[in-house]
Amino acid sequence: MSNQLETLIGFNLLSSGFHIGTSYIAAHDTKQYQLEVAEEDFRSSMASSVEGSEDLVKSQVLATRSYGTVYLARIPHSRILPPIIAVKSEILSDSSSLQKERKILQTLSGCPEIIRCYGDRVTIENQQQIYNLLLEYAPGGILSDLMRSHGNRGKLPEADVRNYSHMILKGICYMHQKGYVHGDIKPSNIHVFPAPDGVISVKIADFGLSKRSGNGEIYVDGRLHVRGTPLYASPESVRCNMNEPPMDIWSLGCIIVEMVTGTPVWSCTTMEDLLHKIAFDEEEFLEIVDGLMSVNGKDFVYRCLIREPDERWTAKMLLDHPFIVGDSKPVVMIDKFFPFLTSTPEVSHH
């Protein structure tokens, strides 16, 4: 697709290969949003030592983002850090987003379901000061990779969906309790860590758009807004720029639908259509997963995707939901509000 400046429903979007359904889009500027593909192929480069910092060795470019470049790296003489780490690098004068991310990750360092930060370093590369954020490396890639590798057209078994949702939810709950909103929960920001015994763990990463809850303007100006990735944006964030904890729960619900069906919740051809659907359409999400999830699983999705943020369940409430705790007794609300779902299979025992 060509790069072109498009005016859509009251604001400008700088498009760089927008492709609804397979690309994951990030927005970082309050006036003009840079849409970028968040799932780029890994690109290799020759290993080289960083000039002026003999102990930090960058070897491979993992990704290029609006905030800088992500490298595979190592610190050979460290007795504390793992042998391989990920490093986000940007010119020091342009690194405010990475420095903010470091501070947030330090605050959230007590949660196993959130990516670990090992500190930062300033190096001299090509006669420029470079800010480097040292992070835990995910050898399993991202959740999108895991879905594609599973087969069955990207659909995951409900037992796996439950386990991954539980881990993501614990990370979200910890973050919210610490007073932060992630603001860009999506499959490419969920990193995968396979263990030698085959058990897979997932962790939340990429806190560049995170903010303090309660800190930000809410306005209704007749325009539709986007912060983060539109495919996972909540109705209130699109309608009135309300970016608070409930938006992370909505994003989790979208991820669960995608893990179950193998495709994103929304299928649109234009940004205008997508944002209008998110803001105003009464999508029957449970019909999408009908026949693919247990009654409790569908109820969990419903609790995440309630359109009114004040009625949407919190992370703490969802951690006690039967779908997460493995209670096989079906919840009762499905029968009352969605009678067409009563014939779905019983929740599996795991």
UniProtKB/TrEMBL annotation:
Looking up SUPFAM superfamilies in the UniProt record yields: Protein kinase-like (PK-like) (SSF56112)
Domain (Protein kinase) ranges: 56-324
One Gene Ontology biological process: signal transduction
Q: Name one GO molecular function term.
A: ATP binding
Entries under PROSITE patterns matching the protein? PROTEIN_KINASE_DOM (PS50011)
Q: Report any Pfam family annotated for this entry.
A: Pkinase
Identify this protein by name. Protein kinase domain-containing protein
Q: Which organism is it from?
A: Nyssa sinensis
Q: Give the lineage.
A: Eukaryota, Viridiplantae, Streptophyta, Embryophyta, Tracheophyta
